[in-house]
Each structure stands twice: as structure tokens, then as C-alpha cells.
Amino acid sequence: MTTASSQSPDTGPAGTAHAPDAERPPQISPAAAATAKLALLVASGATFLAVLDTTVVNIAFADLRADFHDASLSQLTWVVTAYTIVFAALLAVAGRVADIIGRKKLFLWSAAVFLVASLLSGLATGVPMLIAARALQGVGAAGLIPSALGLVLQHTPPARRQVAIGIWGAVGSMAAAVGPSLGGLLVDVWGWRSVFLINLPIGLVILAGAVKLVADTPTGRKLPDPAGTLALALGVGGVVFGVTQGTEWGWSSGRVLGLLAGGAALLALALLLSKRHSAPAIELDLWRSRAFAATNVTSLLFGAAMYSYLLSSLLFLNAVWGYSELKAGLAVTPGAFASAIGALVVGRRVGPAGQWAAVAVGSALFAVSCAGMALLLGPEKQYAAVWLPLGILAGIGIGAALTAISNAATASLPPQRFASGTGLLMTTRQIGGALGIAALAAILERHSVLDDKGYLQVFLACAIGAVAAAVAAPAIRSRPARTT
């Protein structure tokens, strides 16, 4: 990163005054630019794998049931749930640890854990082994996300960080959307084990690149309070698990109520301990920034709508229109690429002061798309006329909103706390996603699997959630710091 000259206006040979150095476009050495590109490539690749594995397994359910025909459906759902719960429970904690011990160190350890867990998942001989491996994979993924963004911001000059975050956000949003199509292709050609084993060659390349990066200097702060950290992880895990199982076990069942009440109590305990401890598990002072607090609210609302939309889209195509898993995955692929375009546009074209507007516009576009699906779709197949344009519009909105939320969150944080803030932001998104999936299940439970009415109601609910995120977006706006 370059520093400004101590001289104010420079004077040329003829006495002509030039603009101050601070106003010139920042100059970066070729070596620094290469390092920034490598950090972005490494972080984007790791984020792609971590986010991909939240959705790629959904499409492999039929193949899993064929191989493990003695396992019940509720057991197989744990293949997805184990990853989601552990991932959500440890994100906030991992972000704090990354800022304390070093982002590169946590990144390397997390990548190694993720790859070992992927190998164990691909070689699983039974459902219990597969579930345990998926939980371990969630541990690795939780460490990858905040440390990956931390590496990008550490090695990228401030003037170029917004573009870098835009690219990182594009990769993350595309991974969530492309998971079903990629999963469908892998399962159709090589079987369900390939969904996990594909991580190995990609992950090894990512690890090799990360080793070349310069390690950051740890902040020297203490590790978070172990009691508060445990309460936070168990609290988030309990709430997400309770919400995930609510439809299957019944919302009035003792197990669901116990999980929700216990998770809420543990979260309250974590907050209480964080107020009193010198090294809190939850850095409450981060939420004193109105912009950061608002990004967490929009992340929760938008995550609920987005994850519900991504799953219901596949279910609708498969159950109502009769598409195969592979054809359904390919049908949603244009939306995945559209999300990357939306993310890149926001990253390159929208300034810091306009991120709140990008969140509002992206959420509004997504809401319009979901509302259009609720009003225009039906049993009759209308892919080119209705689904394709609305899916592309939804993808652009998803990419724009997610990237702007990430941009606004990091802009409101000091550099030494980027990973901590990212961990908290992703935690709220995952909790929102769990709530959205639970709402989807509750709506679909009232209808037949082949009935289009349930899916259309879900699309309408997604539109309402996206509108709520758009309404909350102006709170992200903060007064820009004055510069001299």
C-alpha cells in the first residue's frame, strides 16, 4: 500500500502546480498488485467451496437414498443439517479468532480441516460417518469465510477494496445459486460421492496459493471468553436446529420448544457474559455502529428470503414441472451467472455512500421477481416466457444486495476487525436462512408436493421478506467521514 507524500502541491519545472499526491489515483507496485490478485483468488476459491457445500448436497438426496436404503429420510436430512448448524454456530467465533491469531493461520488450518472432512464424506461407508464428516466440514467452512475476506482486505489497498469485495461477493452469491446445477451434473455423471471429492483438487490448489501469502500480524488481544464462546456456539446451534426440525417434529413438540428456548437462553447468557468480560465472545461494541447493526438486520431478512427462494425454485421445477434433478439445476444456472453480474456491477460502480441504495435496489429487484413468480407461474411450463427472465432478475438482485451488504459492513469496521465483523454478518445470514427454510417447510406442509399453490405462496413470502430488507436498507446510510 502506498503512502501519500508529505509535500502538498508539487511544482513542476515551469512552476506549474500539480494536484496533491493524495488526490492522485493510488499507484501500486507490480508485486503488491500480484499479491492482491493472489489473495483474492485464494479467498474467492475457498468461499466458493464453503458456500457451495451449503446447497450442492440438496440435489444428491435421491442418490443417497438409493445407496443407504436402510436410512430414514430424517437421518438423511442430517447430511445437510449437520453442516448448516455447525457452520452457523461457529462463524462469529471464527471471525474473532481470525483477528486474534492471524487470518492466514486460521485460513490454512480451516482449509486443511475442510479438505480432510470432504475426503471422509466422499469415502463414507454409512450415514453416521457421513453426518460426522459433514459436521467436521462445517467447522472448516466456518473458519474459511471470515479469514478469507480478512486476507483479501489485508492484501488489497484501500482504494481497491470495494472492487475486491465485489468480486468476492460475486463468487459467494454465484456459489449458492450454482450449487444445484453443479450438484446435479456431478451426481448424474459420477454419483453423490463426487459432490464431496470435487473439493479436493480445488482445495489443494487454494492451499498452495495461500501458503505464498504473507502472514498478518496478530492483534495481540486475548482469545474470547471460553464460557461465552461455548454459550454462543450452542445457542446459535440450538436455535438453528430447532427451527430446522420444527416442521418435521412439530412446532409444539417438547424437543423443538426445548431447543428454541434453550438456544435463546444460551444466547442471552452469551450476551450477558460479553458485557462483563474483558475479552467477550460477542463484540457488542461492533453494533454501536448504526451502519454495521443495520447490515446485520438486512442480512437476516434477505438471507431468509434468498435461501427459501433457492430451495423452493428447485422443488417447484422438479415436483410441479417434472424436471429431472439435472434439468432443474441447469434451469436455475442463468440466475447464478446473473447474480455474479449484479455483484460485479455494485463492486465496481457503486461508491461507499451508495451501498445502502444498492441494498435497497437489489432487494427490490429480488422482491419483484419473487412476486412475479407468485403471480405468473402455474402447472403449465413457461420457462422461456416467465421463468428465465424472472430468474435472471432475481439473480441480479441477489448479487447486488449481498455484495452491497458486505461492502457496507466492512466500510463500517476498522481493518483489524474485518474478520470479526464478517463472521457476525454471515451468522445473521445463516440464521435468517434457517428461518426462511423453516417458513418454506411450514407452508409446503399444508399442500401436496405436486400442488403448485404451496410453492407460489412461498415465492410470495420471499417477496415480502425481500421488501422488508429493502425497507431496512436506508438505516445502513451513515454520514461519510470528512477528508482534508
Folded structure, characterized:
There is one protein chain. The protein is mainly α and 484 residues long. It has two domains: 391 residues, MFS general substrate transporter like domains (Growth Hormone, Chain: A, Up-down Bundle), CATH 1.20.1250; 56 residues. It is built from 17 helices and no strands. Helix 3 packs antiparallel against helix 16, helix 4 packs antiparallel against helix 8 and helix 14 runs antiparallel to helix 15. The longest helix is centred in the middle third of the chain and has 30 residues. It is globular, with a radius of gyration of 23 Å. The two termini are 20 Å apart. The relative contact order is 0.13. The N terminus and C terminus are likely disordered.
Question: How would you summarize what this structure contains?
Answer:
This protein is an all-alpha fold.
Q: Write the H/E string, N to C.
A: HHHHHHHHHHHHHHHHH
Number of domains: 2
Work out the radius of gyration.
Answer: 23 Å
Report the CATH topology name of the largest domain: Growth Hormone, Chain: A
The structural class is mainly alpha
Query: Overall mean pLDDT score?
Result: 80
Amount of helix: over 70%
